[in-house]
Amino acid sequence: xxxxxxxxxxxxxxxxxxxxxxxxxxxxxxxxxxxxxxxxxxxxxxxxxxxxxxxxxxxxxxxxxxxxxxxxxxxxxxxxxxxxxxxxxxxxxxxxxxxxxxxxxxxxxxxxxxxxxxxxxxxxxxxxxxxxxxxxxxxxxxxxxxxxxxxxxxxxxxxxxxxxxxxxxxxxxxxxxxxxxxxxxxxxxxxxxxxxxxxxxxxxxxxxxxxxxxxxxxxxxxxxxxxxxxxxxxxxxxxxxxxxxxxxxxxxxxxxxxxxxxxxxxxxxxxxxxxxxxxxxxxxxxxxxxxxxxxxxxxxxxxxxxxxxxxxxxxxxxxxxxxxxxxxxxxxxxxxxxxxxxxxxxxxxxxxxxxxxxxxxxxxxxxxxxxxxxxxxxxxxxxxxxxxxxxxxxxxxxxxxxxx
Length: 404
Prior knowledge:
Elements: H1 2-17, E1 24-27, E2 32-33, E3 42-45, H2 49-56, H3 60-69, E4 72-74, H4 77-86, H5 94-108, H6 130-141, H7 145-149, H8 170-184, E5 192-196, H9 202-211, E6 214-219, H10 222-234, E7 241-245, E8 256-262, H11 273-282, E9 284-297, H12 308-313, E10 321-322, H13 323-332, E11 336-342, H14 344-359, H15 362-369, H16 371-389, E12 393-401
Parallel strand pairs: 1-3, 5-6, 5-8, 6-7, 8-9, 9-10
Antiparallel strand pairs: 1-2, 3-4, 9-12, 11-12
Helix pairs in contact: 1-5, 2-3, 2-5, 3-16, 4-16, 11-13, 14-16, 15-16
């Protein structure tokens, strides 16, 4: 009975200050706080450390830490995102806040000050330097090629697929995307193409095999590059596709005929986007085309670096910019914009396929990545999909030409 009394004051205070609740809570000691709306998700507070995390870092970071370490669970992740995103709690007086904090402290006391989950990354130094960019990319991809293969399609394409042109499977939608980019770049046999942020080589292989071009792909992930080279060799394209571990700022090649940048510009950041566009301009021949495919922020008032959970657990330093800022960078570099196309709903559908595929392989995913990383990815893929569903983020393809 002593344990049951621990959460009782907290339950009473929550019920009093939140008379309308689109969620339920079940505590580690058996105490329950019912939802006031039908079909609401239930949050399970498995250990007092979940409350301590919420006290230590109020907001998404504290909740995310609790979920990653397993002290907080939910029966419906998708419904939980809607609650977090849409629910506006009623105004709470200073006196009520004090009583609520006191009850929180009492309930959290048995857990003490919790540690951060082992998978949390806190970086030092200036953001978006070549050294730090390489570090954050390795953090993201060091989860392992086999882990990503559990939820990506057979081409290992790790960017927005295109379903809106008739594709019904993830494989078809990714082929549609790769072919659309090649078509927009007007690829022809014999051309020399740069693939910035080439990932596991899906576009490089597609362009070389289907269009007869030669491709240089660059990535900051040694693990990606190793598998990409193997896939290139297995496809019999080693003479036409080269994969390098390199930063876009290091490029000093003879001019390329076309450049594809697919799902990479999100990592460039406000401080470097002009440098990025200028680097692409420098290595593109006069009259050549560039296709920039990237996630964009849709709300000018939002700070892309404010999401501390994503910053520390998924894409450290990831910084999706407004489309207008990206286009400005290309225009400052003296590119001519020729075409812009959005694929917001396509990425929501892509992420739906990805998180469903991951859920089909939970045991294997935990074996490969560990339970904390698995929890991060289950949370992230759904959170990202929710962002596209509600119009917080979008994907744009920007096609531009270097004047001849």
